[in-house]
Amino acid sequence: MDLQLLIVTAAVSFILAVLAGPLCIPLLQKLKLGQQVRGEGPQGHLKKAGTPTMGGVVILLAFTLAFVKFSVVNTEFYVILVVTLGFGLVGFLDDWIKILKRRSLGLTSLQKLLGQLLFSAVACWLLIDSGHSTALSIPGTSFSFDWGAWFYYPFIALMLLAISNAVNFTDGVDGLLSAVSVPAFGAYALIAVQATQFPSALAASAMAGAALGFLVYNAHPAKVFMGDTGSLGIGGAIGMIAILTKHEFLFLIIGGVFVIEMLSVVLQVLSFKTRGKRIFKMSPIHHHYELSGWSEWRIVGIFFAVSLILAAIGLYLDKGL
Question: Residue 33 region, left (φ>0) first, then alpha (ψ -120 to 50), else beta?
Fold first, then answer.
């Protein structure tokens, strides 16, 4: 595989997402699939209520069509589709219930967890059947260890849950998740090529193109939101690609923005429960900067730059590049 095929895959996915936007957005408006805004969120977001949501279907549609068109069909191909579309389905149901019941909460935490675990279990079963390596390596070193299947598969199931929810936390400002995910997927596309994991490389390229195409309509002021349909699908995809390329721990660097977003929520909750004090004005951390006076454009621009730097560091640590 050469870089030209990756570029073509990303370009086709981008074009499909751009073309799907004008078709899907009016349909979402007609069906009255508007965003339900949390009352405890930033007050400036209240004006976004009613903006069409579930736009993640645009991302997943463009990704799937481009990926199926250019990828070879093997176990890796099916694993990526199961997790990406499965997690996207969980997000779709969550979004649908929010709209149907006109509230900011859809599925319960337990229901979302069980849905994600179901598709993670299917992915693990496919990987076990294909003889997937259970070794884990430390980025930037030659050190690796293998504690066997009984440790590895529960670990990657939890990893998929953590990553998808970290990505979900990042989706809170117009264009933020779309923008910061592009460098991360770009880095994993190059890593997958070096690891000869061609379906993973094409999936990463297709998702990068789809996210960039969606950004055309999701940039501030957003004409459409991706909802959990998009954020959980994106999280499932990047988590699965990290696993398939055997760069599980490297996600902590390449996906550093997502990790920081999740840590800000965890630290905020722990601090408030143990000390009765908040560390941030609001979590996830992008809301802290928003309440500190940063514009949405500034937040997206700076977070994108950080994501780009972290992706470059990840590539540097990957010794094949």
Answer: beta
